[in-house]
């Protein structure tokens, strides 16, 4: 019985065959004459047929289905030279059909293959963990596909030979989105970007950059803007391209308006400038394109909250050249706004001067700041005003005058024969002194659109007292002339 069992055709023990001849049928081991191949498995008619394992001399192997001596069907393959492995369908010895390729360097592909290359639809995870799902051709991403990048960006669109090309949508990790044409892996052609900062650009792109992108901020109007003391004014702004055209393709860039006052530091009077600033409030002067520096100065606007007239008067009491006797009627008068203060200490009516709405978003390359005005000098800014008596003490030398300011009003009656009432004094106390100022418009878009901040725009602003007092000599200019 034992001998019969050993001769059973169901036995999986390799048959001993004469040297140099492969097994005819059943299960057997055969080492090829060149010693490069060794096969162990099923045979039929002297050919590998069924399940078996073919081992190569370099350590590579295939284990799986054989048909008429060929690798055909489901199997697993290891390449010793690369360390890559494949499990799936084979045709004539090559991976073909559906399968999973695992790369020793990292990464994995699951999908369709042809002649050992990625072909058709599949999912590729590279060694960095980036994931692509879509069409392949000749081992490359080609056709329609979606990819999640290492930085969190997601792309859904067309691919050509491993590069984004055609139409696609990119959703970036920071929240920005681009939809449009691509070429050679960059934005190219018509497309729109909604940036995470709120900026939207619609138009042509060239090599990843907007073709009609703004390159500068321009404040419209005359070279020097003249305004009366205490008056409000508007500032119109354009975003322009290099050729001077308005960048109408851009919306949403955030612009901030601010002001500065001319800073004069005379060599003979090193401690004197338009404003003597407390040490704690000193800052580096800002260079302007007008041949002088400036220091920051506050703006105010009727459209938003700010100091009420009473608080403005109190804060400017120490800074004002007016006598306290002129300020007190304004502080005490209920006629500041034509009625008593409502509960909470806020003035009634619409008389409350306000801080500026200092930021505006651009629409089609344009923005406008309405009802802008210069506020009173802030705490720590002490205007140095040269009255007639001071001029005499200084020997009437023009060098003792400060560049940006006019001669200060005195307590004498103004032209017209009447002294200002409380409301007029309040208005003057809450306004900037006559002189030379600078309006600045900055690009404060956060984060900067495409990593670029536009240069600050400047406008020279001259505040006059409407003829109430003459304009003094400015050091470095010609003799003073009446304003």
UniProtKB/TrEMBL annotation:
It comes from the Eukaryota. Residues 1-26, 305-325, 397-421 are annotated as: Disordered. Keywords: Repeat. The keyword Nucleotidyltransferase does not apply. InterPro entries: MORN (IPR003409). This is MORN repeat containing 1. It comes from Equus caballus. The gene is MORN1.
